[in-house]
Amino acid sequence: MRLMTKPLLAAALALLASGAAWADVSVTFVKPEEFTDMPRSPIERERLEKDFAQYFASLNKQLPAGQNLKIEVLDIDLAGQLWPRRSGGEDIRIMRGGADWPQMDLRYTLEENGQVLRSGEEHLSNMNYQQRLGRHSDSDPLRYEKQMIDEWFGKTIVPKVAAR
Predict the structure, then answer these.
(1) How many C-beta neighbours within 10 Å does residue 33 have?
(2) b/e code 97-134 from CB counts within 10 Å (16+ = b)
(3) What is d(CA 57, CA 20) in angstroms, rounded to the nearest whole number?
(4) Is the C-alpha dihedral spanning 136, 139, 140, 141 positive or negative?
(5) DSSP states of 35-96 as a string?
(6) Which of 2, 79, 89, 153 could form a disulfide with 144 if both were Cys (CB 3.0 to 4.6 A apart)?
(7) 144: which DSSP letter?
(8) Which positions ≥6 away from 145 have C-beta within 8 Å?
(9) Does the pLDDT value for residue 90 go beyond 70?
(10) Does the pTM of the predicted model rise above 0.70?
(11) What Rg value do the Cα atoms of the chain yield, rounded?
């Protein structure tokens, strides 16, 4: 095991020394207190923002090195409806598969070496959110929203990156 450590460390240092740029995805939430669908609890709102920020950041693996994707989330409407609990605690989200599909408005800018490759505003939605198989776990409370983000990213960002 020790024999593998030195070559891997040397390769990592060589990559850093060469000035290779990493792909990056950053996200900001614009007026989240005005979003269509956010939990009432400040702790739950913070957790939701953190979960979305981490998921957007994980998309950097699909971008070529040196590209940066900046996302501004303008509105979120989560799948289902939020029902407050009478006895306190976390609210309950009920998903009926009707007119309660997830939606998100965002603004994005894809850059490389300071040059804007593409930018725009998008309205994401997934009307058939309960009828599709996704790669996200059933235990993930944001699985339908992540599936919607994956579809947008695959159609809008990744194919155009590959076409370059």
Answers:
(1) 8
(2) eeebbbbbbbebebbbeeeebeeeeeebebeebeeeeb
(3) 19
(4) positive
(5) -SS--SSHHHHHHHHHHHHHHHHHGGGGSPTTEEEEEEEEEEE-SSEEE--TTSSS-EEE--
(6) 79
(7) H
(8) 52, 76, 78, 79, 102, 104
(9) no
(10) yes
(11) 19
What local confidence, expressed as pLDDT, does residue 12 receive? 45
**Percent of the chain whose pLDDT exceeds 70:** 68
Q: How far apart are CA 91 and CA 40, in angstroms?
A: 8
Res. 20: pLDDT tops 50:
no
Q: Specify the residue for token string 């994980």.
A: 58
Question: Which helix (H) or strand (E) segment is 117 a member of?
Answer: strand 115-125
Copy the structure tokens of residue 163. 């076409």
Query: And the tokens for 120?
Result: 């725009």
Q: Which two tokens stand for residue 160?
A: 């155009």
